[in-house]
Known about the structure:
The chain has 130 residues and is α/β, with parallel strands linked by helices. The protein is 46% helix and 17% strand. It has one domain: Rossmann fold, CATH 3.40.50. Strands 1-2-3-4 form a four-stranded parallel sheet, covered by helices on one side. Helix 1 (2-20) packs across helix 2 (35-45) and helix 2 (35-45) crosses helix 3 (66-72).
Amino acid sequence: xxxxxxxxxxxxxxxxxxxxxxxxxxxxxxxxxxxxxxxxxxxxxxxxxxxxxxxxxxxxxxxxxxxxxxxxxxxxxxxxxxxxxxxxxxxxxxxxxxxxxxxxxxxxxxxxxxxxxxxxxxxxxxxxxx
Length: 130
């Protein structure tokens, strides 16, 4: 079932990170489009505690446990990146997500750029300088 699949991929991502080295180096998790849900679940339910979580071009999954996310993200900078002309996004869902983050007490920052549903090098480079 779906919950078992989520547990499996969270466990897999934790094992993969262990294998490639989790030597205390600050980690940034960057997710784009449908990968946003996977990254949110990994950070919330897995062992990783990144310095920064960058969610680009999609919304937090609606089934995410926001209380668990608040705890998991306590020491993580959360950046939500959105294109002003992204056809995959809409204002109503953005407002709902904003309200959910605020209600859960999750610190975050929205970053917007002129453009659509793509990763733009200039915006990505700008995030590295934040």
